[in-house]
């Protein structure tokens, strides 16, 4: 696990270094680590002779009678003790210094404090949908007025609205959006991130 994490961090640092030096890697291959573990891994393997690990019982509370059954209480103590709490907590009950030292001092660098995790949703400035209704007796594909509405929504929300679409946008009759924007293909090195708010 350590070697895998070290490899992943090294890959991320290389991508960041290239970007910060002004020579970004187009379509970088970000590392992904996939860990497969047995169901209930780390829980008591058996309770009262019945398999917990790798069984449906791993989805339940494995030691339900620990309060009244001395054998379950002993198993619970051994299980919790396997996490070596003496290494995680200080004698006064606080968290060990080695763990506290990992936590950034600057609140803005803490994962739960990143603006992207808690920033409020930006409400769209939406046009009145009634302006796009087909007049009585008129005809239109049901998708054409939606395309018109999406086009105006793009105009009214130049930084907060995108359309994510496969390449069937025209055949789905939503091509009115192309009056004020273009496509932003994601797959090619030379077309990636080139204008356009239809992703």
Write structural notes for this entry.
This protein is mainly alpha-helical. Among the domains are: 1-36, no CATH class; 122-199, no CATH class. It has six helices and two strands, in the order αββααααα. The mean pLDDT is 89.
Mean pLDDT: 89
Helical residue percent band: 25-40%
Q: Name the strands of the widest sheet in spatial order.
A: 1-2
**What proportion strand?**
under 5%
Got a strand count?
Answer: 2
Q: Span between N and C termini?
A: 36 Å
Biggest pleated-sheet summary: 2 strands, antiparallel
Number of helices: 6
**Broad shape:** elongated
- Radius of gyration, in Å, reads 28 Å
* SS-based class: mainly alpha
Order of helices and strands: HEEHHHHH
pLDDT under 50 segments (min length 5)? none
Protein name: Xylulose 5-phosphate/Fructose 6-phosphate phosphoketolase N-terminal domain-containing protein
Domain Xylulose 5-phosphate/Fructose 6-phosphate phosphoketolase N-terminal: 3-120
Organism: Lepraria finkii
Pfam family, one: XFP_N
